[in-house]
Design a protein that fits this description.
The chain is an alpha+beta fold. The protein has an 11-stranded mixed beta sheet with strand order 1-2-12-13-23-22-21-14-15-18-24, with helices on both faces. It starts with a helix and ends in a 21-residue tail after the last helix.
């Protein structure tokens, strides 16, 4: 009943305003807590549930609380002392205040640890039903609230919640969700790559594994859906996948889809998918030639029975609706989830690459998909958490960090792998407001600090200052154990704000676009020359497989674009990987809708290392070499000297030519051509800073 009332915002706010007065009185009985010491901070925080349905109820009430401003505000006042952190923790996360707001996992933890949550839920249902429509100024209000108030006090007075709250303010601590029976919460966890990987990077003579067809894996899981399906995606242009969604809806699978609205009309393929989905949603009118606002109005006016089976939301994010999530049969025993680094596009997942429409005999060997991976796992409890997150975006249409609650993170224990001393552990989180509001600081940084000096990154974009500072801090602690390796996508790896460029002791002049050695790099004071050389040799971009390739085939121009699109951290010494993630470590990603996943103590970590080591081994060019090559090209270009067009990778020439055209007038006069038609700005680049 709470969820039904929640749909009526005004009614719920009136009801919960009175409820918060009761909760304020009751929870004020709690004993004030000091922030936990180190021993307490090491203590795991756990909520055990009988089944996914119980977790759904807990999350429903949690969501009702965080989206009721007055109730949430009062709860934060009640727990002000409980939410006060140490000066050390405040400094660690650079918080402006020592008092933080309650996160969703904290609220869920409190609800579950009440003496009888279900009785509280029933009381809240009865309270809303009985008093929800009474005017706030009605003199009967206080009198009618007293019975509820007394019952609530009786329920909470004997609660042990106060003793279990210690340490919950540490954002690096996730809330573990588990079954009361003690059985593992997740199984069948695996990662799939659409580029070759080593069979075993320590025995490279064993060869490589062939690329996997990621689109087929998506399609198979859609085909296997039995009851429900939720998909949230940044870009979608695979018409055959849309056909599979339609087939699922036709066989009775309740389906909802969210797509970033800014991508839906980008290309004919995107428009074709949108047209199919709009028709599936019950819109009979053609959308040909309509603006996105007109299409949204048509969707909002749908009143057909079809809407109960299928809903489409064009997500109007303040940043990017950048998630790539497929959640199948949430809350059931056979729930399956896909977390992807790539979108549902031909470029990202189609095994044929951009030249899919060419005869295979004419298709260039460079036509391969962007390097991506997907994670697939069976976890009924996690699937419920994911539905809870998607509800905020797709159903409630929340936007930006101001509208999303502090969502923390959740951990789950799986089976123990052969030879391991502890069970596998996976952790999921979401932005905006993952952790305590900052994913890089409160979720990724703590893992890096535990990495014992060994960090591998395979990243499309890496620019978050907190991550850069953390890596330098790790190097300073023990340069002899510092082992940093990186493979990145060339265009973004070479930006002046890029982590791999700055860790290579290089920088770029934003006016001349030339690269130079950064004499002010703190690494020069931390590491000796041999260590610097080793670090620079381990930070690479691939000049061969990735980039733009231009062809004329049968009289027609063809452009093929291939990107290294992974968002992967690997911490081998603690057997942890961050993968299956849409989150590029950047400041802008904090405000996007993103998913984050960490896996520890599981064979999939080794499989991920095998993929990384293959990319490293097949990427001989370092960032330093690339920087010098680009600088040499600029100097030749500006001086109008003859250029050997085969000296530089094509995408470097095009990007540098564009940058030269954008230089100030005194430098612009030296350029050869002002033709801007050949190079388009990198779409969404502003969101990767």
């Amino acid at each position: 009943m709470i969820e039904a009332v929640f749909q009526s915002k005004n009614q719920l706010n009136r009801a919960l305003t009175l409820a918060c007065l009761n909760i304020l009185t009751v929870f004020s009985l709690f004993t004030p807590l000091a922030f936990a010491d180190a021993a307490e901070r090491a203590k795991p925080f756990e909520v055990q549930v009988k089944n996914p349905q119980e977790l759904t109820e807990l999350l429903d009430v949690t969501r009702a609380i965080v989206f009721s401003p007055k109730l949430y505000e009062h709860l934060n006042k009640v727990f002000a002392e409980h939410l006060t952190v140490s000066e050390e923790l405040q400094k660690e996360y650079n918080w402006p205040s020592r008092t933080k707001g309650l996160s969703e996992p904290q609220i869920l933890f409190l609800l579950k640890n009440l003496d009888d949550f279900h009785k509280i839920k029933d009381l809240l249902d009865r309270y809303i039903a009985r008093f929800g429509t009474i005017d706030e100024n009605d003199p009967l209000r206080k009198e009618l609230a007293e019975p509820f108030k007394r019952e609530f006090q009786d329920l909470v007075n004997n609660s042990k919640v106060t003793s279990d709250l210690r340490g919950l303010n540490d954002p690096s601590k996730s809330l573990t969700l588990s079954y009361q029976s003690g059985r593992p919460t997740f199984t069948d966890f695996d990662v799939h790559f659409n580029q070759p990987t080593f069979v075993d990077h320590e025995r490279q003579e064993l060869g490589t594994l062939a690329p996997e067809d990621l689109k087929k894996i998506f399609k198979d899981h859609i085909t296997q859906a039995k009851r429900t399906m939720s998909l949230n995606i940044f870009e979608f242009n695979l018409l055959d996948v849309a056909d599979d969604l339609e087939a699922a809806v036709n066989r009775g699978v309740r389906t909802k889809v969210g797509i970033d609205r800014s991508t839906t009309l980008l290309a004919p393929e995107n428009k074709a998918v949108l047209a199919k989905l709009v028709k599936m949603a019950g819109v009979e009118q053609s959308i040909e030639g309509l603006a996105i606002e007109e299409i949204e109005k048509l969707l909002s006016n749908v009143r057909s029975s079809r809407r109960r089976l299928f809903t489409l939301t064009l997500v109007n994010a303040t940043g990017l609706n950048h998630q790539k999530i497929l959640n199948v049969d949430a809350g059931t025993a056979h729930a399956k989830t896909i977390f992807s680094s790539g979108n549902l596009t031909q470029s990202c997942l189609g095994k044929e690459g951009d030249a899919v429409n060419l005869d295979p005999q004419l298709r260039p060997a460079t036509s391969i998909p962007n390097a991506n991976h997907i994670v697939v796992y069976r976890n009924p409890l996690a699937s419920v958490v994911i539905e809870h997150e998607l509800f905020k975006t797709i159903d409630l249409k929340r936007r930006g960090q101001k509208q999303y609650p502090i969502s923390g993170s959740y951990s789950f224990l799986g089976q123990r792998s052969p030879g391991e001393t502890s069970p596998a552990k996976m952790t999921i989180a979401f932005s905006p407001n993952g952790g305590m509001g900052d994913v890089s600081s409160s979720l990724i940084r703590p893992q890096l600090m535990q990495a014992q000096g060994q960090i591998f990154m395979m990243q499309f974009v890496a620019s978050a200052p907190k991550i850069l500072d953390t890596i330098i801090e790790i190097a300073a602690k023990d340069p002899t154990r510092f082992d940093f390796k990186f493979v990145g996508d060339p265009p973004f790896a070479m930006q002046s704000w890029s982590i791999p460029l700055l860790l290579s002791i290089m920088n770029r002049d934003d006016v001349t676009k030339k690269y130079f050695e950064n004499k002010d790099s703190p690494l020069l004071k931390i590491m000796d020359p041999d260590q610097i050389k080793q670090l620079q040799d381990s930070i690479r971009v691939n000049p061969k497989k990735y980039g733009e390739f231009h062809y004329t085939i049968e009289g027609k121009s063809l452009k093929i674009s291939v990107k290294l699109h992974h968002k992967v951290f690997i911490l081998p010494r603690i057997n942890l990987a961050i993968l299956g993630t849409s989150f590029n470590p950047s400041l802008s990603a904090e405000g996007n809708q993103e998913q984050i996943l960490m896996i520890q103590n599981h064979p999939v970590v080794k499989k991920t290392i095998n993929a990384f080591m293959y990319e490293l081994a097949t990427s001989p060019m370092t960032v330093v070499q690339r920087a010098r090559m680009r600088t040499k090209y600029i100097e030749r270009r500006l001086d109008s000297r003859p250029i050997n067009r085969t000296d530089e990778p094509l995408e470097d020439r095009d990007l540098v030519d564009t940058e030269i055209r954008e230089m100030p007038n005194d430098l612009e006069s030296k350029q050869v051509s002002r033709d801007r038609s050949k190079v388009k700005p990198l779409r969404c680049q502003k969101f990767y800073r």
